[in-house]
Amino acid sequence: MRLEISDITKTFKTKKAVNQFSMTIEKGECVGLIGPNGAGKSTLIQIIADILEADQGEIRLDGKPIATMKREIGYLPQYPNFYQWMTAAETLFFMGELSGLTKHELKRDIPDILTRVGLAGEEDSKVGTFSGGMKQRLGIAQALLHKPSFVLMDEPVSALDPIGRREVLNLIQAIKEETTVLFSTHILNDAEEICERFVVIKSGEKIEDTTKNGLLNRNRDVAIQMMIGTGNNSWWEHVKQLPYVQKVNVFGNKAQIYVNNIELDKNKLLGEALQHHIDIRNFEVGGTETIEEIFLDLVVGV
Amino acid sequence: MNTFSVLAKKELSQTIREFKIIWLPLVFMLIGATQPIMMYYLPSILKMLGGLDGITIDPSMTQVSGAEVMASTIDAQFNQLGTIILVVALMGVIQSEKANGMLSFILTRPVSTLSFVWSKVVSQFVFLALCLSVGFLTSYGYAALLFSTVPWGELLLSMLSYFVWLLFVVSFVVMVSTIFNGQGIIALIGIAFLFFCTVTAGLHPILAMFSPAGMSLQSVYLLSTGTFDPKIGWNLLVSVLWIGVTIGVTYFWIAKKKFQK
Amino acid sequence: MQLHYGWDDFNDIDWMTIIPILLPFVLIAGLLILFALIDLYRNRHRRENVLMWTLIIIFINTIGPILYFILGRKDRRRT
To answer: Is the Cα dihedral B190, B191, B193, B195 positive or negative?
Structure first.
């Protein structure tokens, strides 16, 4: 199971939604597709799911065109919606039969899967009365029912309230143990929590393809995060004068201090602060930025 | 079980759940009964209203045959109110699947576009043909009761030829429902074009040759004269072509995923 | 021309011949209304504009129930 996306381009009227996007997903990977709203995430996912036709490029699963491999794909749209008049169990039965499952298999599997997504007891409720979170969970059940080897999820948690979001995130955690998962989100924390690999998309183009550690390490600048008690702000002026300090970014009683050699200079700086009887609240060496900030830099910055 | 039968089965259970299976036949019963009853009472109503001033009623007018009554049932009821109801009952057939996202959903499954389109057209056609049959039979019953009996063969043939037109109605509305996204606009285009077809076909024989409504005209012709118009082979061919084109467009539209916004 | 009709004219109508012909017709129309009302009543907690639909079904002849079946059978969402 290996998904190859090569050179996908899709234009809507004048707007290029996806531009020459390529990536490969290996078996068992969990990939978060991150990007701001309107970056082309949904378009790309829909092209992979073979709902939209790309202007250019192709998607191959195990070397075969995706259109012939639909049996292997589970897809969860951004706003899953079903026939209002069907019950939850009927919906799964219908989708399962379309996937080529037998009645026998479906009778056996549907109660299990409904329990798994937390919809046990709602088998015979009409989908028309379901809340957004319930539909999302039914959508996940539907995507997993035929045991696909590759699961695609378009913004699975964005529309949910905090409780629903937590439930669905836990579900995805469990799913990724069994199958390859690609999901899109504009909320970085969700991707960070579940996935090891991130692909950042902006204006339809891939601008970053990295792992969580890779992202943190690369941006691990030689910087010290320092926080002091209020009323000591003249201290920052003093720090700026120190010979081994390159740059100080002050935010009130917090600052980022860039030094020449982090290993040697951090202790000098700490010593300096102790000498001046500075009320140190926090003194930390490490990544200057959280993943959130790196993400913002990537997406908003140059 | 192949995907065609899964989809067709879903269409059937939808007509049951939405009670279409009850109300549509009832509506067509009403439509089928209206014309014979109206024609039966028309002379007495006219007489009552006309009163003593005496609008002279052509005696031949009261001597209509059951077959002619059925012909005017098709002409004045099925082709008018009946068509509107058919279009309204059909307008959501693909549009609602687009609106609720099920069309995309279904197409992420191993379902061929062909079996999707066929399941829609075939199941809707079979169901609506049954509803229309109920209407035809009601009209037949009233015509026999109030006027004269229509030969079974004539009834059957006129129904069959009208069903060719019905198949066009179904495939045309399915096409419009695939292309457009609003129920209002679908109903408007559907009703306007289908009326246009029937009206123009009735205006001139040449127009009738190229109209998909040729077969509905044949059905009226058969009931009023007792035989089909000799051009029936040609009408059938043209109708089949129209049906082929509309289904082809629908197929293309879905296969090329043009329904996505 | 006579424009107003009194009871006498009403009685002139031969009801015995009319009833067998019109009865099935009225019955079917009534059945349609009945089905619409039953469906509306059974789902009254899940529907919006119940009163409006009740009036439409009863007062707009034949078309009312059809409108209800096509447009009025949408469930309210659970929140």
So the answer is: positive
So where are chain B's domains?
A: 3-257
Contacts of C32 in chain B (CB under 8 A): 23, 26-27, 30
Burial class (CB in 10 A: 0-12, 13-18, 19+), A97: buried
Give me the amino acid identity at B159.
Answer: M
Tell how strand A180-185 and strand A30-34 pair up: parallel
The count of CB pairs under 8 A between chains B and C is 49
Q: How confident is the model at residue A50 (pLDDT cuts 50, 70, 90)?
A: confident
pTM, two decimals, is 0.82
Spatial strand order of the sheet with A223-228 comes to A245-251, A254-259, A223-228, A280-285
Measure the CA–CA gap between B175 and B166, rounded to whole angstroms. Answer: 14
CB contact under 8 Å between B260 and A52, yes or no, is yes
A113, A141 Cβ separation under 8 angstroms: yes
Question: How far is A167 from A170, CA to CA, in rounded Å?
Answer: 5
Residues of chain B with pLDDT under 50: none
Chain C residues within 8 A of A130 when measuring between CB atoms: 77-78
Note the Cα B162 to chain centre separation in Å. 7
Please give the full DSSP string across B160-209, using - where no structure is assigned: HHHHHHHHHHHHHHHHHHHH---HHHHHHHHHHHHHHHHHHHHH-HHHHH
Q: How many residues does chain A have?
A: 302
Answer whether B108's CB lies under 8 Å from A50's CB: yes
Contact criterion met (CB < 8 Å) for B19 and C39: yes
